[in-house]
């Protein structure tokens, strides 16, 4: 599939569309966002690209809403390649 370049502006737009009800709007750390964009675009493997997108949730470039932005971005990267992640059945055990 065709790989497209992710931009910081694209991620900011996704964040703004997903989180109009967030308590605090805006970017907390533009440098972190730029670093993650660079890492995503360096990867050739689609699953590694999606993994870097999910890492956005851990690095907190925004004041709020990084998890929903990270999951949406990862899903977008996978779907553009014709892939997706699926929810699996997980057994829980009581100790």
TrEMBL record:
<dbReference type="Pfam" id="PF02661">
    <property type="entry name" value="Fic"/>
</dbReference>
<dbReference type="InterPro" id="IPR003812">
    <property type="entry name" value="Fido"/>
</dbReference>
<dbReference type="InterPro" id="IPR036597">
    <property type="entry name" value="Fido-like_dom_sf"/>
</dbReference>
<feature type="domain" description="Fido">
    <location>
        <begin position="6"/>
        <end position="95"/>
    </location>
</feature>
<protein>
    <recommendedName>
        <fullName>Fido domain-containing protein</fullName>
    </recommendedName>
</protein>
<dbReference type="InterPro" id="IPR053737">
    <property type="entry name" value="Type_II_TA_Toxin"/>
</dbReference>
């Amino acid at each position: 599939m065709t790989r497209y370049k992710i931009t910081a502006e694209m991620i900011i737009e996704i964040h703004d569309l997903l989180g109009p009800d967030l308590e605090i709007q805006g970017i907390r750390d533009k440098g972190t966002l730029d670093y993650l964009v660079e890492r995503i675009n360096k990867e050739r493997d689609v699953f590694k690209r999606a993994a870097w997108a999910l890492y956005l949730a851990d690095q907190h470039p925004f004041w709020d809403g990084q998890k929903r932005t990270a999951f949406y971005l990862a899903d977008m990267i996978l779907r553009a390649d014709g892939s997706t992640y699926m929810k699996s059945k997980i057994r829980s055990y009581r100790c």
